[in-house]
Specification:
Layout (H helix, E strand, L loop, with lengths): L23 E11 L1 H7 L16 E5 L4 E4 L2 E3 L5 H4 L10 E2 L11 E5 L4 E2 L6 H4 L5 H11 L5 E5 L3 H12 L3 E6 L4 H9 L4 E4 L8 E6 L6 H6 L2 E9 L20 E4 L5 H10 L9 E5 L3 H9 L6 E5 L3
Parallel strand pairs: 8-9, 8-11, 9-10, 11-12, 12-13, 14-15
Antiparallel strand pairs: 1-2, 1-6, 1-15, 2-3, 3-7, 4-5
Helix pairs in contact: 4-5, 4-8
Bound molecules: zinc ion (2 copies).
The site of one zinc ion has 5 residues, from loops.
């Protein structure tokens, strides 16, 4: 499924078999998760995609030697810029991202740099494993950035939040879920995966929170989240794109509250999280679509009509 230009539907195309270059593997794609970032690419909010582009960066595939591997968003780094040398390859100045700079997994075959592929834990069917590769990974990194917060608010309860809630509960934290106002089904879903309280994004939780992770791409949630934080609390913005954050009184930030973003992932995040997921154990809730239904999956995600994570089944 090919993006020719932002703002257009993806086009089903018969492309030549991709040729693996040095250090690359050819993978038979089994499943590929649909991420909100894909939507930002297709809708033109991320402005520098390779074109034409095969989107998709939560790829579960089988290598020619039979290994089942995951291909995440971080597809290549230079290994030598100041960020790479500091161990912060997620900030690499020349990073290439899967399904943005490199063709991704909305396809039957993909090539990927072997050094950035992650082993998929046993016990997860392909479609259950796919959302671990970005929703899970970025959610995990976001939770780490929340420090040792005990009471954690999650704004936007989709693919990432439903995984983070399970990891956080496993670590003995408490989860408070914020959905679109009036989304009773979303709130019920949040409670079913471990939230002790669920309400609308403008609601006051029953107590102050130590951290809030904002997954929804709505800037107005940042001051809303600050307003429910205890002293010293942190708002973590987990998405790659967000509408403008409205101005707010300094009082909301005072008392050492912080706002920070999370960008991309490191390979170490991937290895840590994929080792942790089966121990929790994380159970992903997925809605599956055929590869040819990618536009439908994206549209449902755009409308907030997916419960958990959307996944394309790509195997022929
Ligand atoms: Zn670098
Ligand atoms: Zn993603």
């Amino acid at each position: 499924m090919v993006l020719d230009a932002p703002g257009q539907p993806l086009r089903a195309a018969d492309l030549p078999e991709p040729e693996p270059g040095p250090g690359q593997l050819l993978l038979d794609v089994r499943a590929c998760g649909v991420c909100r970032t894909d939507l930002h690419v297709v809708d033109g909010e991320l402005t520098r995609p390779k074109l034409p582009l095969v989107p998709g960066h939560q790829i579960v595939g089988i290598a020619e030697d039979g290994r089942r591997l995951g291909v995440p968003w971080l597809g290549w780094t230079d290994g030598e810029c100041r960020y790479c040398r500091m161990g912060r390859e997620n900030l690499c100045e020349h990073a290439r991202f899967t399904g943005y700079d490199l063709d991704g997994g909305y396809a039957e075959r993909v090539v990927a740099d072997e050094r950035f592929c992650l082993p998929i834990p046993d016990g997860y069917p392909d479609e259950q494993a796919a959302p671990l590769l970005c929703a899970g990974l970025i959610g995990y990194r976001s939770l780490r950035m929340a420090g040792d917060a005990e009471r954690v608010g999650l704004y936007g309860f989709g693919a990432s939040a439903h995984i983070v809630a399970q990891v956080a509960r496993h670590e003995g934290r408490r989860i408070f879920a914020f959905t679109k106002p009036g989304d009773a089904d979303g709130q019920e879903f949040a409670r079913s995966v471990g939230a002790e309280w669920a309400g609308g994004s403008g609601d006051q939780p029953p107590e102050e929170l130590d951290a809030a992770i904002v997954f929804a791409p709505a800037g107005e949630l940042v001051p809303a989240a600050l307003a429910v934080l205890a002293r010293g609390g942190t708002v973590v913005c987990a998405g790659i794109h967000m509408s403008d954050i409205p101005s707010f009184p300094y009082e909301l930030l005072w008392e050492e509250r912080q706002i920070r973003s999370v960008a991309n992932l490191t390979r170490a995040d991937g290895e840590e999280f994929l080792a942790l997921a089966p121990q929790v154990p994380v159970r992903t809730h997925v809605e599956t679509f055929a590869l040819a239904e990618a536009n439908d999956a994206l549209d449902r995600l755009r409308r907030g009509a997916i419960t958990g994570a959307a996944v394309l089944i790509c195997r022929a």
